[in-house]
Amino acid sequence: MEHGVITRWLVENAGRLPQLIPDQILKLKQLTVLTLASTYEVLAYDQMMQELDVTNVLELQDFLINECMYSGLVRGKLDHLRQCFVVQFAACRDLRPAKLGSMIETLSNWLSTSENLLVSIQEKIKWADDRDEIEKKHRKCVEDNLREVKNTLVKANSAIRTQEDNEVRCVLKRRRHITF
């Protein structure tokens, strides 16, 4: 069976099949829309009405909106002027054997892209870690230099005070020796 001919097949084989309940018919119609939406980007109303055994456009639009779009099977736009449904999203269905190679290729490409992205992220992390290490060393060097300058200033200040104190003492001693 090709995509979307489920309803037609059911009609043709109705005599050999048990009677379907409404929920089963609904499910088959939803699967038909899903198959069509997975295959084509634009679905003509005429084709869908034929595939779904729907008699008018209003009934088709109600079915698409209420039974397919609201349930999350498909997302798209109903184009009244062009009499079509423009598919934006279709939920996944079981993979057909003919599509297996394509799916493997898609997944292989995704894996390759993911691996490349992971390598790139790891390189960026290493670069950031290296920069952080350089910044830490620079910060430590600046702090060491600052501490050394502070110590030098403290020592210089202490030496200046000592020298000033000595000069003051000398002046005081001289004044004591000079009497008027």
TrEMBL record:
Cited InterPro entries: COPS7/eIF3m, PCI_dom
Assigned keywords, A-Z: Coiled coil, Signalosome
Any one GO CC term of the record: COP9 signalosome
Residue runs in coiled coils: 139-166
Pfam families the record matches: PCI (PF01399)
Domain PCI intervals: 1-92
Homology family: Belongs to the CSN7/EIF3M family. CSN7 subfamily.
Protein name, as recorded: PCI domain-containing protein
